[in-house]
Specification:
7 strands; seven-stranded mixed β-sheet; single chain; TIM Barrel; alpha/beta; about 170 residues
């Protein structure tokens, strides 16, 4: 599945092990929440880098103990009209999560700037969507907004601060 970072399609170096499948001796593993709970501590001790894939209705407080350990949190978007993943990303960032946040599923280029402003670093889409919405669409979408309504880590200035401009003291 294509991975989009900074408006470009890039290679994904994370492995998604299938249940019952032998794990590689080392590497970046993207696990389900259940597998993280059961096998996470042993995998960290063995030297693996861990990420977790969660649904967009997951309570972020349940991941709080894992936040310093996880390098990637992938949040599912079952439909492009379901925005709960955006809220979840913002909540995880406010809780102090500094690793990569990935939106996975049904996102469209029109949502890309908003995803970035909510704290996402990458977006993973299906091959079918990538065929309909190639890299040039995502690159253009990344450049489409220079200001946002809300303050964020991506947009250094928001529309209100731009409107008021520099003030004399």
């Amino acid at each position: 599945m294509p991975l989009i970072r900074n408006g470009r399609f890039v290679a994904d170096d994370w492995l998604r092990p299938v249940a019952g499948e032998a794990l590689p001796w080392y590497g970046k593993l993207l696990l389900s929440r259940e597998r993280l709970s059961h096998e996470g501590p042993a995998l960290i001790e063995a030297g693996h880098t861990l990420g977790v894939e969660i649904a967009n209705d997951t309570a972020p407080e349940g991941l709080e103990a894992w936040l310093p350990t996880l390098t990637l949190i992938a949040i599912g978007f079952p439909k492009s009209a379901d925005g709960r993943g955006f809220t979840l990303a913002q909540r995880l960032r406010r809780m102090g999560y500094k690793g990569e946040l990935r939106a996975v599923g049904h996102l469209i280029p029109d949502q890309y700037s908003f995803a970035l402003s909510c704290g996402f670093d990458t977006v993973e889409i299906s091959e079918a969507l990538a065929a309909r919405q190639p890299e040039k669409h995502w690159a253009a979408a990344r450049q489409s907004m220079s200001l946002a309504y809300q303050a964020s880590s991506v947009f250094q200035r928001n529309i209100l601060s731009a409107r008021w401009g520099p003030r004399d003291a």
